[in-house]
Amino acid sequence: MQRGSININILEIISLPPERWRETKQLRLEALLAEPSAFASSYEDELAFDDEVWIARLTSAGKRDGNMTFFAEVGGVIVGMAGAHWSAKAKLRHVAEVYGVYVAPEMRGRGIASALVRRLLAELRALDQIEKVNLTVNSDLQAAVRLYEKLGFAIVGTARRELKVDGRYYDLHSMELYLKKI
Hints:
There is one protein chain. By secondary structure, the chain is α+β, with helices and mostly antiparallel strands. The protein has helices at 21-34, 43-47, 51-63, 112-126, 142-150; strands at 11-14, 67-74, 77-86, 95-103, 132-138, 154-165, 168-178. Strands 1-2-3-4-5-7-6 form a 7-stranded mixed sheet, with helices on both faces. Strand 3 and strand 4 (95-103) form a beta hairpin. The longest helix is centred in the middle third of the chain and has 15 residues, at 112-126. The radius of gyration is 16 Å and the shape is globular. The termini are far apart.
C-alpha cells in the first residue's frame, strides 16, 4: 500500500513488539537517508547493526527499561516514530531525552509528529521519576522547532556547528520542558 493514499483517520500511536523489528529498521534507515541532518546517527552506522540490535531496542522499549518508543501506524503501515530514554543514575533519572522523531515525508502536515510526541510526553508524565524532558533539534528544521515550542518546549541554548553532514555544519538547539513543578 502506498503511504500517500492511506486514510489518516485510522491513525494509531502504538508500541511495537520485538517481532516487528524489520519495520522499525526499515523506517529508521529511511529516516537517516531522508533527513541526515536531523539525527546524530548515520545511515551507514545503523545499517551495520546486527538484527539482534533492532530486536533488543524493541524489547527494551516494551519493558520501559530506560527507554520507550512509539510508532504511528496508519492502515497497518508504520509511518512515524518517536522515542525517549532516561538514566538509571540517581542524579539523572528525573530527566528524559526525546530522540528519533520522524514522520515519512509524504505523511507530514497531518499532525502525526504532534500525536507521537504528545503520546510520548503523556507516558513520560506517568512515570513518577521523570520531571523534565530535553531534546536537541537542528536549528534549520523550523517546522520541528515550531512543533516542539507548540508542545511547551523552550530553547535554552544553541550549540554552533555541532553536527557535520557531508561537509556542512549545522547548529543544534537544546530545548527543555518541565513536566512537574520543581
